[in-house]
Each structure stands twice: as C-alpha cells, then as structure tokens.
Write a structure and sequence with these properties.
Strands 3-2-1-4-5 form a 5-stranded parallel β-sheet, with helices on both faces. It is built from 7 helices and 5 strands; from the N terminus they run E-H-H-E-H-H-E-H-H-E-E-H. The longest helix has 14 residues. It has one domain: Rossmann fold. The protein is of the alpha/beta class. The protein is globular, with a radius of gyration of 14 Å. 32% of the residues are buried. Helix 1 packs across helix 2, helix 2 packs parallel to helix 7 and helix 5 crosses helix 6. Helices cover 55% and strands 12% of the residues. The N and C termini lie close together (10 Å).
C-alpha cells in the first residue's frame, strides 16, 4: 500500500495540542516503522519546518526533518508537477494542487489528510487519518 501524507497530518503528529494529534501519532508510527509506504512532497518539509517554529528550536526541527527523509518517500516538484497543478484550476490553493499532482504522479492508493474538502478534485481517494488507520489495520 502506498499513501501520500498531507502536511497537516505530520503537523498534527508533531504538535501535541493539535486536534488530531493522537490519530496522527498512531498513523505516523506505522509510516515511520515502514508498515506502509508513505510519501510526502518536498515542499511539505519546508512548510513543516516553518509551521513548527513556535514549538521547536532549529535543531529539533532539523532532527525531525532528517527522520522524515530517512523513513518516508520524498517527492520532488519539478516543472511537470507544477504544470499539472496549475491545470487544476478548480483549486484556489496552489499548495493543495501541488499535493494532488505529486500524489498522482507517484501513483499512490490514497491521500491522507484532515482537510478533505481541499482535495475534492483529486482523482485519488482522499481519507481522514482515522480511515487511513482502518485501511492499514485491515492490510496488516
């Protein structure tokens, strides 16, 4: 099983006060243990470095970025991915369009996010963290 992990799922895992922290922690454990092949876009890593600046110092942020790149697939965004994203004019948010374009190019089985409404134009099924946990549990 190959899944694309949206930025918000990793942020929920890293930031204990986030609403979906518990579910995200359970899901990310499976990903980091490589029970499921999980991938992220390269720009998610820079976004996470910025998003978590209020919660972690630079050394801590570099440490978790290193962990992520050692355990998850990191998908690059080249001109082709940007072109695909820009064709998705239904989406007002380029970042979401890039996430979808990366996931489509990688051929993932589903996208995991808590912002389901932002991925309605995706050709790939999009599921919540809870649903992803159920899917992975059925696979193991």
């Amino acid at each position: 099983m190959k899944v694309f992990v949206d930025t918000n799922v990793i942020a929920d895992w890293l930031i204990p006060t986030n609403t979906f922290h518990a579910e995200a922690t359970d899901f990310m454990k499976l990903c980091l243990q490589r029970k499921v092949y999980a991938c992220v876009s390269s720009h998610s890593l820079t976004d996470l470095f910025y998003i978590t600046r209020k919660y972690f110092n630079s050394n801590e942020r570099y440490t978790f970025i290193r962990l992520l790149i050692s355990r998850l697939g990191v998908l690059t965004e080249d001109a082709a991915v940007f072109s695909t994203a820009l064709k998705n004019s239904v989406l007002a948010d380029l970042e979401d369009a890039l996430q979808i374009a990366c996931a489509e190019r990688e051929g993932v089985d589903f996208i995991v996010t808590e912002n389901l409404k932002d991925f309605t134009s995706s050709k790939i099924p999009t599921v919540s963290i809870k649903s992803a946990l159920e899917k992975v549990a059925n696979m193991l």
